[in-house]
Design a protein that fits this description.
It is globular and about 45 Å long. By secondary structure, it is an all-alpha fold. It has helices at residues 11-17, 31-40, 51-54, 61-69. Bound molecules: iron/sulfur cluster (SF4).
Length: 73
């Protein structure tokens, strides 16, 4: 039997710890929308990147892989 579970969005709390520097984004703090948006574009969300890399707004898998190879993440 399927049960529907109401889950409260923690957008306000998430926003406080969000490391994304792209201020106009409407998905800020809505982590489920944030990750699905970026994965659809072969990217990862801001919180996967160290601050200097995050500020480049290059959120591509390739950029992340380079940082892994350089042991920056
Ligand atoms: S990582 Fe992307 S989707 Fe998430 S808050 Fe930042 S700009 Fe928006």
């Amino acid at each position: 039997m399927d049960q529907e579970v109401a889950v409260e969005c923690k957008q306000d709390r998430n926003k406080k710890s969000c490391s994304c520097s792209y201020e106009p984004c409407a998905r800020k703090g809505i982590c489920c929308e944030c990750i699905s948006y970026h994965v659809r574009h072969r990217e990862l969300p801001a919180c996967c990147f160290p601050p200097a890399a995050e500020r480049t707004y290059d959120r591509s898998f390739e950029h992340f892989a380079r940082l892994v190879m350089q042991k920056q993440v």
